[in-house]
Amino acid sequence: MKIMFKDSPSPAPAKNRTPRIRFTELSAGYPGRPVLHELDAEIPALALTALVGPNGSGKSTLLGVLAGVIQPTSGELHHAGDRPPAFVPQRSAVGDTLPLTVRQTVEMGRWGERGPWRRLTRQDRAIVETAMERLGIMDLASRQLGELSGGQRQRALIAQGLTQESELLLLDEPTTGLDPEARERIAALLTELVTDGVTVVQATHDLEAARSADTCLLLRDGHLVGQGNPEQLLTASTLARMWESA
Ligand code: ADP
C-alpha cells in the first residue's frame, strides 16, 4: 500500500526532465525482513535527487536496489543508462583500520574496468589524478585512510566513485556527521557534477542537503510518502509527521 500525505504535491518529478531510473511497485529487503513496500517513482536524469527519511526508513536499501547490489523481491526497475552506476558507500561501512592509502582507495574505483590488483594503465592513472585533484585530496595521496578526518575520507570515497566514470552517481549519507564547511564543499561538488552531465542520487537525513537537491523522495517505514520539490515537500508539518514515531 502506498501512503501519501494529504498535502504532498502530486507525485511528479521535476518538470522537463526525462527519467534516468523508473520503478513501479518495487519491493525489496533482506531474508525474512521486507523493507521497501511497492514504491512507485522516477529519478530524473541530470538532476540531484535526495532520498530522505528517518533512520531505518529504507534509504540505504533503496540506494542498494538502484545500485544493483540488492535484488527487488517484486516490482519493476528500469534504468535508462547503459553504464553501471558508481556507488559511494557510507563512511561507516568502510573499515578505517584498512591499511589503504588515499591513492590506493581512489585507484580501486578503476577495478571494475581493469580487474582487482591489475596494473593500472596510464589512462587509469590520469583518471585517478583528475578525480583526486577535483576533490582537493592530492596532498593526502599517501596518507592512510584511517588517519583522515571524516570530510577528507568522504572526499576520498567520492573520488573513488568518480573514477568509475559513470553518468549515475549514488551516494549514501555523504554529508552526515561532517562539519558545515565539509558539508558545503560536498554539496557544491554534487551540484557541479550535475552541471557536468551526471545524475546524482544521495540518501540523506541531513535536511540542508535534501533542500539543496532538485527533487526528493520521502521515505517512512519503507513506504514512499512524498516526492517532488524539496522546498514544497520538506515543510515543518511534513517533517514532524515523518519523524514522529520514527
Ligand atoms: P536507512 O538507510 O533509512 O537508515 P536502511 O535501508 O539502512 O534504512 O534500513 C531499513 C531497515 O532494514 C532497518 O530496519 C534495518 O534494520 C534493516 N536492515 C538494513 N540492512 C539489513 C540487513 N543487511 N539485514 C537485515 N535487515 C537489514
Automatic annotation (TrEMBL):
SUPFAM superfamilies: P-loop containing nucleoside triphosphate hydrolases
A Pfam family recorded for this sequence: ABC_tran
ABC transporter domain span: 21-246
GO molecular function, one term: ATP binding
InterPro entries for the chain: AAA+_ATPase (IPR003593), ABC_transporter-like_ATP-bd (IPR003439), ABC_transporter-like_CS (IPR017871), AztA-like (IPR047748), Metal_Ion_Import_ABC (IPR050153), P-loop_NTPase (IPR027417)
Keyword ATP-binding: yes
UniProt entry keywords in alphabetical sequence: ATP-binding, Nucleotide-binding, Transport
ATP-binding found in the keyword field: yes
Family designation: Belongs to the ABC transporter superfamily.
NCBIfam families: AztA
Protein name per its UniProtKB record: Zinc ABC transporter ATP-binding protein AztA
Source organism: Streptomyces tibetensis
Name of the gene encoding the protein in the UniProt record: aztA
